[in-house]
Specification:
5 helices, alpha+beta
């Protein structure tokens, strides 16, 4: 096994991000937390948010940043931050959101989640003078505890669509 390299994502990462990210999403929320998403909703969600085409479009988004962790030529983790899209009345233009942070099961325990979180938050702080935001699934207590350790506080909630299925999410803010 070689060392892990963290770098900015490139357009050619869209396919590998889709494959690895979808695998992580299913492992976390379907296998791990046991959320019984209907197959039709998963397919709609995959096409809209996790397909290679969706990633290709997101990688080109102005004002957003993507990082990937690579080991032995394969992506094993990634993070994405960009303009805040969370539905909160105190959100202001120019504020930023940590949108995604996933680590493949085979790479967990290597500190990649913390490294990507630190990198994302540093980038966010350097690119806004406003608040930093995170949306987190209400049942993911481990992530909530981690974000609290970084100074994020719950300030609201919303429903996140996975197809027609609606997940209860918490909105966290720092600053």
């Amino acid at each position: 096994m070689t060392d892990v390299t963290i770098r900015s994502a490139r357009p050619e990462d869209a396919g590998p991000l889709s494959e690895m990210g979808w695998r992580c999403f299913l492992a976390t929320f379907v296998d791990g937390f046991g959320i019984p998403y209907p197959e039709a909703d998963l397919e709609v969600f995959f096409q809209a948010a996790w397909s290679p085409g969706a990633f290709a479009r997101k990688l080109e988004e102005p004002g957003a940043a993507w990082w990937v962790a690579e080991r032995d030529g394969a992506l094993v983790a990634f993070a994405n931050a960009g303009p805040n899209g969370l539905p909160h009345p105190d959100a202001r233009p120019g504020e930023l959101e940590l949108r995604r942070l996933y680590v493949d099961k085979a790479a967990q325990g290597l500190g990649l989640g913390t490294k990507l979180l630190d990198l994302s938050l540093a980038w966010m702080a350097a690119h806004t003078t406003g608040a930093l935001w995170i949306g987190v699934w209400s049942g993911n207590l481990k992530a909530q505890k981690l974000y609290a350790a970084y100074g994020f506080e719950p300030v609201g909630g919303y429903q996140f669509a996975v197809g027609d299925w609606m997940d209860d999410e918490f909105i966290l803010r720092r600053g």
